[in-house]
Design brief:
Blueprint: H1 2-23, H2 26-34, H3 41-49, H4 54-67, H5 73-81, H6 86-98, H7 105-113, H8 118-126, E1 129-132, E2 136-139, E3 144-156, H9 167-183, H10 188-193, H11 196-203, E4 213-228, H12 229-291, H13 296-331
Antiparallel strand pairs: 1-3, 2-3, 3-4
Length: about 325
């Protein structure tokens, strides 16, 4: 019985030691004390209970202490519980301190929680980044299209990193400046001869206002000549004018045809009235003869006048035909 009891005591002791070591990281405590970091056993146990890695916390505190940063355990725990990355925050603070860049712990935490890489931002402040714009098409006053690529050298503006616009805004503003500069040039040759004109004009516009970056320089990487858009626009305008004129001519032709049809209808109506009137002439003459208003001799004289008129018209038509034939013979 004594041996069994001794075995149970040994197993219980081993379990107690394992549980103690699980919640009381002695190795981390010893390393923290050796580094001069004020971490107590109670703090480490509390981190375990709050599901915070004591190892990460101790490493961050040791790095901050060696760099001379005034960071407390509560500040780091607060940032970890908020979902932040304390390692990158501490590295960013150390890098900014070495580069003499003003950066506070609260500001670094805000940048990290905003979803931006605070360490990369500090590194970009020391080592500027080059942003290459896509080809920007613009047309000069002479109608020639130019395609321009630019390289924008920027560095991070730490003070504007939270709430400031990103790279897309820089690219859009530079593209707008390129279009404005080329569009105000009299000819495309001016831009080809002096591409730095674009750089100077765009750089002086202050395009980095309200962004998370500071523009250091704008360099024109490539300029290509594109289409003659002015000539194409003139051709399109001429084609549009031709179609409009054609449509108006068609409209006038349709109106003329309608007027002609209307006049033909009026002529036919008048002819019908004349025929009807002529049909009444014999009746009127017969009535005049019966009533004695018209004598037989008067009737014969009227017939002679009508025959004479018909003869004169026939002679006139034959003379006109002879003159026309003689003119054609003369031309031959």
């Amino acid at each position: 019985m004594s041996e069994i009891l001794l075995g149970v005591i040994i197993v219980a002791a081993i379990l107690l030691i394992a549980v103690f070591l699980r919640y009381v990281p002695l190795g981390i405590w010893v390393r923290a004390q050796a580094s001069g970091v004020p971490l107590s056993i109670g703090m480490l146990i509390g981190m375990r209970l709050r599901r915070i890695s004591p190892h990460r916390m101790a490493d961050a505190l040791i790095t901050a202490s060696k760099a001379g940063l005034n960071v407390s355990v509560d500040q780091l725990e607060k940032h970890v519980l908020a979902g932040g990355d304390i390692e990158r925050v501490i590295k960013a603070l150390v890098s900014s301190q070495q580069a003499s860049i003003p950066l506070k712990f609260e500001q670094a935490c805000a940048i990290d929680l905003a979803g931006r890489d605070v360490l990369q931002a500090v590194q970009m402040s020391v080592n500027p980044k080059i942003i290459e714009t896509p080809p920007v098409s613009a047309m000069a006053m002479d109608g020639i299209e130019l395609r321009v690529k630019a390289r924008v050298t920027v560095r991070t503006n730490i003070q504007q990193l939270v709430g400031g616009a990103g790279e897309e805004t820089i690219i859009a503003r530079v593209g707008e400046g390129i279009v404005t500069t080329i569009g105000s040039s009299n000819t495309h040759k001016e831009v080809l001869e002096n591409p730095d004109k674009i750089s100077r004009t765009v750089l002086y516009k202050g395009l980095d206002a309200g962004t998370a970056y500071e523009i250091l320089s704008i360099d024109i990487a490539d300029v290509d000549v594109g289409r003659n858009i002015g000539a194409q626009l003139q051709m399109d305008q001429a084609e549009a004018d031709r179609r409009i004129a054609q449509a108006k001519a068609e409209e006038r032709r349709a109106m003329a045809v309608a007027q002609e049809q209307e006049m033909k209808a009026q002529v036919q109506e008048m002819r019908a009235k004349v025929v009807a009137a002529e049909a009444e002439v014999p009746l009127a003459m017969a009535d005049a003869l019966r009533s004695g208003k018209l004598g037989v001799m008067d009737y014969y004289r009227l017939q002679n006048v009508s025959a004479d008129t018909s003869m004169r018209e026939a002679i006139s038509k034959s003379a006109d035909m002879e003159d026309s034939a003689q003119g054609q013979d003369g031309d031959k």
